[in-house]
UniProtKB/TrEMBL annotation:
This is ABC transporter substrate-binding protein. Keywords: Signal. Pfam families: Peripla_BP_6. Residues 45-369 form the Leucine-binding protein domain. It comes from Sporichthya brevicatena.
Amino acid sequence: MAGGAAAGTDTGTKPAAGTGTAATAGTGTAGAAKANTPKVANLSPINVGLVGTFSGPIGALVGGTTTGARVWASYANAHGGANGHPVNVLVGDDGGDPARYNSLVKEFVEQRNVIAFVQNTLGFAPAGNNEYLNSKKVVTFSSEGGLNQFYENPYTVTAFPSGDMFAKAIIGAVAQEAVRAGKTKVASFACSDFSICDLFDATWKDPAYMKSIGLTPMMAARPSLTQPDYTANCLAAKQAGADLLVFGMDSASIERFASDCARQNYRPMLGTGDIVVNAGLPKADVVDGIVIGTKITPWTATNVEGVRTFIDALARYAPGVAPDGSNILGWAAGAFFGAAAANLPAENPTAADVFKGVYQIKGETLGGMTYPLDFTKGKSAPKKLCFGIVVIKGKKFTQGPGPALNCPKG
């Protein structure tokens, strides 16, 4: 195993490519070990779980998070592990079945001694139902970003905008570029297939909020990701006078949507969010110019320490895998767990030790990848809004103008 990463296990359909299945502690940089941690992960191994919908159409969306978590893990274990503990990441595919999700997390906790979870796709199969892990007081570190519960439950914590904050991060990034281009009349299309899209829809058609960022909602619709043709949606947006389309849909659907609009000689500005964007999207001519709002510092911001570390580690531990909006989130979720695991005891670390570690996180930015993280026991995590901007130009992901991470005041 490259980098000294501990062996891991896949349960269910094997997710996207990656090497190693391990995780580690780290503060200051994404995945880098603290100066006072051992240089060799030579204590007893610990297990971390990652359960989600990693097959089928949803797997195409979020499967890259498993690659990112594994790459981060391999890199970080090579730098001392979780305060000296090598960590196995056990990956389980729920196949979109809520019962399967609950069965897997129960198996991981009760039979495999998993002490924390990273980047579970709570917004898909379980539709936010995390009662089992909450009852066992096992922390889930971040998710795909569609839920507000990460601000409401001490055992689900996030290192970047989630729920309505994620919806605002996407539209905030898009608005910054759209207003500059004079494209302010919005038609929004949040998928009808999953509850994760509900907050996107509600936020993007709220006239008061949209006005506050310089946009005017003209129409909103809830198409399905499995819809074979979006011509009717294109014509409705065109008739409504929209010059900007915002999507809460997967990359394949966005490409089909843009193609259907182009056939109607309708080529508005486009916008979407990071979790739905895979490395293949820039290849489509019809999406050239699309603005991608990210909830952390984007993978294109190579001047940021944490991003550079991620890019270098991806090249080493998953050669041939291009960085995108999904695998960088898996990396960041792992690094977030690492920050909480920085002071695990040498003997028999438990879920309670990880939970305690959450409240020792003060001012952590994961190497500049997110806003300063501060957790206070007995209080919900504060909602914070920051976003990055990526624009597809010339069939490449390019860094948007301005700071790598925008944090609007108020």
